[in-house]
Structures are given as C-alpha cells and as structure tokens.
Amino acid sequence: MHSHNVLCIGSGGREHALVAAIAASEGLGVCYAAPGNPGMASIEKVQCVNLQATNHHEIVSFCKEHDITLVVIGPEQPLVDGLVDTLRQHEIPAFGPSAYAAQLEGSKAFAKEFMAEFGIPTAGSELFTLATDADAEAIKAWIQNQASLPIVLKADGLAAGKGVFVCETMDEVDSALEQCLASESLREASTKLVVEEFMEGEEASVFVLTDGYSSKILGVAQDHKRIYDGDKGPNTGGMGAYSPAPVVTEPLLKEIEETIIQPTITGMQVKDAPYTGILYVGLMMTKAGPKVVEYNCRFGDPECQCILPCIQNDFIHLCEVTVQQELDQVDISHSGASTCCVVLASEGYPASYPKGMKIQGIEDAESVLNVDGDKAIVYHAGTAFNEDGALVTNGGRVLTVVGQGSSLQEAVRHAYLAVEKIDFEHKTFRKDIAQKGLNRLQEQ
Questions:
Q1: Predicted TM-score (pTM) above 0.90
Q2: With b meaning 16 or more CB within 10 Å and e meaning fewer, what string describes 246-272?
Q3: Percentages (nearest 5) of helix, strand, coil residues in the chain
Q4: Are 343 and 239 in contact (CB under 8 A)?
Q5: Are 279 and 297 in contact (CB under 8 A)?
Q6: Model confidence at 160, in pLDDT bands (50, 70, 90)?
C-alpha cells in the first residue's frame, strides 16, 4: 500500500480532531497541518507548516513539492474562497465542496433561494439590501407591517458566527441594523440581509458525509452557542456540544433524511454542482417537523470533536472514497459511545480576553478513564508555546475537553472530571453542557 501524505488546513480544536483521525489512519506518511497548533505538533507523523490558506498558489506548490495525496480543509472561509476548485484544477485530491456548493453556507440568500426551489422546509424569509440608513428604515417598516416579533436578522455573508440577530422588540431590530451598518466586520457580510420568521423548538445538528450522490450520516449533535449557563449572554463560536442528541429520535432522523438531506444532495446535482465533503445541517425541531436553520459546508467546532472520536472507519479512506465518488461502497462504523465536549475559554471571550496564561494538567485530564476504558481527550484550539517553551493560552477558546461513555450521563460526568484537572488563569467554561439532552432522557 502506498503511503499517503496529507495536508490539513486549519488551527482549531476541530482541526486537531481531524489531524488526530488522519494520524490514526493506515498508510500515512506525513500529515502536514497548516498552520496547526501545539496539540497537533505533539502527534507522531504530524508536522506543522506555516502556509496561508488564502494563498492558493503557495498551497498548490507545497502539495506538489511534498507529494500530497489528499488535502482536508477544516474551516469554511477557504472552501467559500474556492480552494477546492484550485486544487482540483491541479489534480490534487481535496476533501470539501466547490466554491459554488459552499455557497450553501457562504450566502444565506443563496441557501434560502435553493431551499425554496427544492421544497426544503425552512423559516419563511425575505431578502433586503442594507447599505444605507434609508435601507434600514425600509426594513423596519416592512417588519412592522408584514411580520411578527420575535424576528431573526441574518447577514448574507460569512461573519464568523456573529451575523445572526434574534430580535424580540423593535428596539433590538434597531440596534441590530445599526451594528450591521457600523461594524467593519459585519458591514460587508450584511450588504444583503435575510429577515426571517423566528422558529420555536430545540436545535440539533446533523453531520452528513456525501460524495455528491450517496450520503452517510456521521452523527447528530447539539451545540451550545451562548457563553453562559442556561443559554445566557452573547453567542460564541460554541462552548460545548454532545452527541448523540436525544431530541433527534430514529423516526425524526429518517424524516430529516427524506425531507432535507436527500433533496439537498439531489438539488445540488440539478444545479450541476454535486456537493462533496461534510454537509452540516443545522435544524430546528418545530411542531410542524424538522426545518433547516442553516447549512454549513464543513464540520462544526466543537461538534466535530464529539463526533470524530466515535467513527471507527479509517479516516483517510473515508475522505478518499468521498473524493472519488465511491462512498456507496462504505458503511460507517460507529463505536456507539456517547460524547460530551466542554470548551475551556479565556475569561472575556467572545470580547477581549488575556493571552499567555500557563496551562497545566492536560496529561492528568487525558488519564481520566470511565468504566469502559474510554479515555478523555483534550483537543487544542487557542494554545501556543511561549519563549520558555511553556504551553500558554493564545485564543478565546483554548481547549476542547471530550468525555466519552456508554451513556450520555457517563460522558458528561467524565468530561467534567477531566475539565477539573486542567488549570490556567482566567479559565472559564459552561457547567451545563448536555443538560437539555439529560433532561430529555429523563422524560423519555
């Protein structure tokens, strides 16, 4: 068997989980992580390299020079920017959707029009231009005359998870529109603004592996976006997740496959842009059935850290059959474990936070065993080595701690046991990850 050299793009907890899965695959020569992080650097056969995902030319040259047989792209921006298309032009196998297909995440307007065209259930919505104060006034007038509160405003473009506003009053609508016009990061993303009805229900995320024709469900997770316990405070990139999510029962999952996943994959074929890679479907379980909140064109972070440890297939092989459109020949093998992951963040996140705090106790955390012998796992995100070679905090979300177990209760207990072993100044985390799932299991 020839050896595979893999390049993985990204530096977060999600990419650490991807790189760990790649490193555990058979026949790996070297896995290069660009730019990677200290957690990835400590894995055997992994080398961190300083490549810019925005510089496609540099990435292509690197792939040719290092005989790269597969590129795995973690974050959404390079996918939306068409990195996969560039690599394909140079006959370098890349795992992820084309720029056209990635518009499902890259443009809320594209996704809404697509769902309307193919009859995929989602919230009713209207598209507006938002470039001036007059546009903002027109949007407010429309909401007052045509809509009911609460209402959801979504920037059309990528806004690093900060472009969605749930407004319960007209004052909140005012301030959301002001933010979109005033904030440098949001202004560009929100020149087109989707205004949509608020959906009642519990959220869940389904992760689908697809080669554009066949698809396999990798897992179902529930993410916790808010910074504080009880879903209070501002949205973040994600403070924790758990899998599987009991809100999605077997019959519901079948319904999601038939009414949402299959039509999405078929729709992209009709558009002559078969979707390959990970399709992440964010759902709301409403009284009227599952509806799409949003699509993402890659693994979630931290949901990826919950789902990948349970997948027993050779990960490089899974990526290869996906790229070669032979996914129908593979069955997904799942360990059957439940997982709960807790993000350790720096106090102040998602606003400003301190950096450079020494981190201790990761090895102790990873030695936490549950009764089935599943180890706790710690994935690095915002970490770095300081001048003295000590591991320090270097981001808002610092580490993802994953507990595993034969039940969700066990996975949660296990995750928090491991969390207690890790220490750094200004460490903060949510204490109620998976509580909704545990409550639901008690009701069942």
A1: yes
A2: bbbeeebbeebeebbbebbbebbeeee
A3: 35, 30, 35
A4: yes
A5: yes
A6: low
Treating both helix axes as pointing N-terminal to C-terminal, what angle do 99-106 and 108-118 enclose, rounded to 10 degrees? 100
Query: Could you read off the pLDDT of 57-88 as tens digits, one per residue?
Result: 999 999 999 999 999 999 999 999 999 999 99
Average pLDDT over residues 286-296: 93
| pLDDT surpasses 90 at 184 | no
- How far apart are the C-alpha atoms of 238 and 234, rounded to whole Å? 11
Buried b (16+ CB within 10 A) or exposed e, 364-395: ebbebebeeebbbbbbbbbbbeeeeeebbbbb
* Eight-class DSSP state of 358: B
Distance (Å, whole) CA 398 – CA 359: 10
Contact 295, 282 (CB under 8 A): yes
- Hey, what amino acid is at 435? Q
Q: Supply 247's token pair.
A: 């809100």
Buried (b) or exposed (e) across 107-145, using 16+ Cβ within 10 A? bbbbbbebbeeeebbbbebeebebeeeebbeebeeebee
Residue with tokens 């200290």: 38
Mean pLDDT computed over 25-49? 96
Beta bridge partners of 272: none
The predicted structure's pLDDT at residue 194: 85
Please tell me the distance from the alpha carbon of residue 162 to that of residue 290, in angstroms, as a whole number.
Answer: 24
Strand, coil or helix: what is 34? strand
Domains belonging to the chain, first-starting first, are 4-96 (3.40.50.20), 131-190 (3.30.1490), 202-443 (3.30.470.20)
**Ramachandran sector of residue 437 (left: φ over 0; alpha: ψ -120 to 50; beta: rest):** alpha
- Give the residue among 130, 126, 95 at the shortest CA–CA distance from 22: 95
How far is Cα 163 from Cα 15, in angstroms, rounded to an integer?
23
DSSP code of 422? -
Degrees (nearest 5) of the Cα angle 205, 208, 214? Answer: 150
